[in-house]
User: What shape does this take?
Amino acid sequence: MNQPLDPSRRHTDAPAPIPDAPGTGAATDALTPAALQRHLRAAVFGHRIFYYPTIDSTNDRALELAAAEEPEGSLVLAEEQTAGRGRRERSWSSAPYAGIYASLILRPAIAAPRAPLLTFMAAVAVADALNEVAGLRARIKWPNDVLIGRRKIAGVLGEMRGSHPEVREMVVGIGINVNQTETDFPATLASIATSVRIERGVPQDRAVLLASVLEGFERRYARLLRDGPATLLREWEALSSMPVGGAIAVGGPAGRLDGEFTGIDEDGSLVVRTHEGALHRLPFGEILDTLLP
Assistant: This one.
């Protein structure tokens, strides 16, 4: 496996932030590079930041920067996205100055089939930070949605460009609903989305939460490259919204599959045992239903 991150590669010469967007309270509530770095304990991740009050998509900008050889650990951070997206090109609601909208550049040089582990890792880091910093009980819905109960509070989107035996560069986008109120979500999301503020009843410091996510991600990233995925997979299963042995229905490449959730494999694929006893490995798909309390 590859070696862990080298702290000597730390970048502190982040590009100068764009001035805060106009509007009442924008400067006070802004998640600027300076605000983040006051709390940041990660050695590399988040020390080189491209900050935008408004952008179409942090992932798109991070992919451009990765192609331009920006170093690993560089972060694109925005107060608002006008074309934010999640998995399967679904739109991501990005209320201005309310959530965390960030994309991280990675250069892991791992086998391409293991790229999903990096999105798993981000989901674990997000759920762990929400639990530790915000006092929530966040759980992960395969592959990378973070839930409070049955409502989505965060999502992760990993993207690569090019096709190679190894992942040379990858962007991991993280969206977290932090200080949104019920009226900040479109009507189509009102019943299925939530935020830290809705759950806790008080605003949350976004810089503290993002710093915790980056620190947790960096620590797990170094361990994955050094030791392999075993510990990460155990962490993911401990945070999973699906109990091992529980009934599950998944929409996969061959259509709907019903059975029993038996865990995830070393590449992050979902493993389902059908009622006939056959094991199916699903590298991608969509959970349609779970029989959860």
Q: What stands out?
A: The chain has two domains: 7-238, 242-290. Confidence is low (pLDDT under 50) at residues 1-28. The helical segments are 26-29, 33-37, 58-67, 116-134, 196-200, 206-227, 230-239. Residues 87 and 157 are 6 Å apart (CA to CA).
